[in-house]
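Hi U.,

Before I forget, here's the chain from the pilot set. I'm dumping it here mostly so it's searchable later in email.
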Amino acid sequence: MSTLCRVDDCSVVDPRGCQTLRLEAYVTHWSTLLHWVSQGALQTLQLSSAGVDDTRCSELCRLLPWHPLHTLRMDHNGLTFVAMGALGSFLRSDSRLTTLDLSQNRLGDRGCATLLAGLHTHPSLHTLNLSSNRLTSSAAQSVADLLEHNSVLTSLSLNANRIKDEGTATIATSLPLAQLQSLALAANFISTMGCERLAAALPQCRTIRNLDLSYNRISDLSCFLHPLKHGTLRSLNLQGNYIPSELCFGLACLTLQRSCRLQILKLSGPLLSAPQLANFKLLKANSHCSIHYTPSKKPSWVSDTLRYPPTRTPSHSPTSLIPSAHDSHCSVHYTPSKKPSWVSDTLRYPPKRTPSHSPTSPMYSALI
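Structure:
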């Protein structure tokens, strides 16, 4: 397999037999590139930051049906909805493409709808990247329609758009019907409300493994307690959100339970105190999950009046995460009794200095 890296000089490489064409710089001789594409039998075409505008994309799409193309990357090119008509027509007739990367363009909601309409019945596309394309919550309906009709797509990236809570809720309704294994919604202005709608759909999604919600506006993790305990998630990325340390620790404690299948957990919140940091280190040492905690400053969208934990602790709160007898391989029995006379009224529980072997510390001291 030959790889072509530059097209500034048409005498560099003979295009015949070329299966991979990678260009990561502006193409000055576009006619030369079109000649090479017309001569080769490409399986991979990567045109990153190559200056492929709408007109050039339309010209290129007329040549693509003659190639056994598996991977098409046209990121960082400034494409708009105008080019999506030609690309959508190619995708309707194509049956071999497995990876499509159109990130860092300017498709907008209209371009997204035009593009995704040609992918509803695509038989082989597994990976789709539409990150940073000026998508809003209106584009979420096009995404939901794609997930309902396409049973092949396994990886979808929508990072750095403006999906927000309304769009997240729309996508969440179609997740049980999809076969997604990886969903990336980082930097989409999603708050706790949208996160709750997404988490509510996760127990019904038996295929999803990786979820990226980093750099949003999520401040509560209680909605993830049931999905993580009984779901199929392997990786959860919540970095860049501002989550109170008590809730982070509560969610991290969930990884100690046998039913939790999480392997990678990334969290972000306030700077930890020395005891909290010690608890996290011990928790990481005893958990099968790789836990990452990144301290961050409190952003402007966090309310100063928000209380953690809330006045009324719900049954699914992180403070109720201490493993029960159902989660342990040991037969646990607890018998309540009255305080005997030999117990001093001044005795404190837990003591000021809790020994390392105490059942109340350091694993769950933050939860007491």
